[in-house]
Amino acid sequence: MSNVVKVLAIDGGGIRGIIPAMVLAEIEARTQKRISEMFDLIAGTSTGGLLALALTKPKRNSKQPQYKAENLVRMYEEEGETIFSPKTFAKLRALTDEKYPADGIESVLEKYFGNTRLSEALTEIIVPSYDIEQRRPHFFKSRKAKNDYERDFPMRKVARATSAAPTYFEPLKLENHDLTDYYALIDGGVYANNPAMCAYVEAKDTYPNATDFLVVSLGTGELSTRLFYDKVKDWGLLQWAQPILHVVFDGSSDTVDYQLRLLLPALEEGTNRYYRFQTSLLGDVGNHLDDANSRNIIGLKRLAQDMIDKNDTLLNTLCQQLVSSIPTGNV
User: Fold this and answer.
1) ∠ CA(301), CA(38), CA(129), 5° rounding?
2) Is residue 254 annotated as part of the catalytic site, yes or no?
3) What is the pLDDT of residues 243-267, one digit of tens each?
4) Is the dihedral of CA 200, 205, 207, 211 positive or negative?
5) Is 46 a catalytic residue?
6) What are residue 47's phi and psi, to 5 degrees?
7) Interval 213-252: pLDDT, tens
8) Catalytic residue selected from 11, 36, 40, 46
9) Where are the alpha helices (DSSP H) in 57-194?
10) Coil, strand or helix: which one is 182?
11) In contact, 219 and 253? CB cutoff 8 Å
12) Residue of 11, 36, 129, 187 with catalytic role
């Protein structure tokens, strides 16, 4: 595969981000290369945006990435309960306030990103969010940040914006550099929970001379619990408030998967151009984006490892493609 642009896209999914983090750790282990070395462009929504940013964050005064994917697996294990730390009297306030205070997630983002800015990303990245005042999608793009100071925000702010899931966290008021205006941003998952199509389009625009594209899309687990008609037919705003987010997230993710399978079929010689790694969430494991207790974490890790084991041959094929040539953007 010559002059092939390699694209990575990571879904949103809260604490379930540990699933793609484990897949990425496996890819790094098999290739003995860092994720930022192997891809031309990385996209991530919500928890996937946090991963995209962290994987491309450089060490201080270095062009080497600070975090391995295995570091980010531990992040979910160690920081999950800080991110999803309930408000005092949360049950009483659930109808009139967001579920979690922002200080928990913001303290974790400060710890992992410090003052590193979007323009410093080692690989081109794109992170979706949504501006509720302008009523339009907002994309954070490292290539734009490198050329326009007004678009160059701290990574921790970008991560906070893309993960501001309605009902879970309050929106982010992101002020511009001269403090004369601001963006009012929520989770990009409301329109691009699976950012693979956004990433593919961005790659085509960024690399117009590419001969082909390789897109790797990582899911965070898909709910298998059915919403039975007789149970939900009389639901109102209260009952639908959080379940509707899962419906939107899963539905949009599956739609993008369908589109890319048609747009990027395997070549005649059997070379894959599109990979999607996704698993079903079984029983009580992963049913909630914010379930950071150790039992759920262990369950999610088992699901991820099972998916890795079942896709052993496919992962080997992908790893061979990833190391077969350096990313086009680095030529």
Assistant:
1) 65
2) no
3) 766 767 676 788 899 999 999 999 8
4) positive
5) yes
6) -60, -30
7) 999 999 999 876 676 677 777 777 666 666 766 767 676 7
8) 46
9) 69-83, 90-93, 102-113, 142-147, 155-162, 189-192
10) strand
11) yes
12) 187
